[in-house]
């Protein structure tokens, strides 16, 4: 599977459209353009004076977004670039300040089933996890080369799995006889470590979910990138401009929550969402990926 036929359903679109009203000449930065679903939603309301600057670290996603956004009236500038470099990249376009920054974190549905991404524990594929293929270290490098204690720490810190020591021990024991190169192999080792065979009735999630999350965060440096994006946003937003972040796990959501709070304390932001907005049951039924989404919005003062 290469994921190119898998459609990504953007989450919380109605809420976003209801909360954020952009003038027709607005400049929006979509820090994670993906398949362009959210950008299309806002882009439809922009005129020829408006612009979308879209970032993604996955070239394939950018190609799809370009196709989806091709008929919009506004300018569309797509960048194969990490959002950690948002300020520099926006300024390179001769743009000083923007009206809206949107970041819909994580990965697209198409990337989850793409064998080249190597992200899925539900489909067997090479254990890679680099969303940006310019990165050097794969998940296979980490599981085969990291010492047991550091591996356990990584699974605990980024996956919040209390069984991290046991999982690391099983990984290290396994790799003594053969390298771990496939997602299916790793998922099986984690299941064995936890004494589980797959999704259990008691738990909502597959036993390998947290280990895979930890490795993906480590491979793609996800939390550091998010911190840089959040740190750049106040300097980039116009007065009354908005930042909206959709996160899919508590480590990301905590970073966003604390950043917005700190900026509100310093009179830089006004928080629009006192509590994060989550999708309703109806949206979750239509789009399972939405179940863990949390949206936070702040406005520059
Ligand atoms: C959940 S998808 C976004 C979907 C998009 N909102 C849509 O409606 O189609 C997240 C996207 O962010 C990209 N991404 C993840 N980390 C990134 C980063 N640090 N910089 C730029 N893009 C990133 C992924 O490649 C993926 O395409």
In short:
This protein is of the alpha/beta class. The protein is 43% helix and 15% strand.
Task: Provide structural commentary.
It contains 13 helices and 7 strands. The protein is globular. Strands 3-2-1-4-5-7-6 form a 7-stranded mixed beta sheet, sandwiched between helices. Helix 2 links the parallel strand 1 and strand 2. The N and C termini lie far apart (46 Å). The mean pLDDT is 95. Helix 7 crosses helix 10 and helix 8 packs across helix 9. The protein has 301 residues and is an alpha/beta fold. The protein binds S-adenosylmethionine. The site of S-adenosylmethionine has 22 residues, from helix 2 and strand 2.
Oligomer: single chain
Query: How do the helices and strands follow one another from N- to C-terminus?
Result: HEHEHEHEHHHHHHHEHEHE
Tell me the radius of gyration: 20 Å
Strand content: 5-15%
Number of helices: 13
Give the strand order of the largest sheet, numbering strands 1, 2, ... along the chain: 3-2-1-4-5-7-6
Morphology call: globular
Weakly predicted, low-confidence segments: none
Largest sheet: 7 strands, mixed
Distance between the termini: 46 Å
> Count of DSSP E strands?
7
State the helicity in percent bands: 40-55%
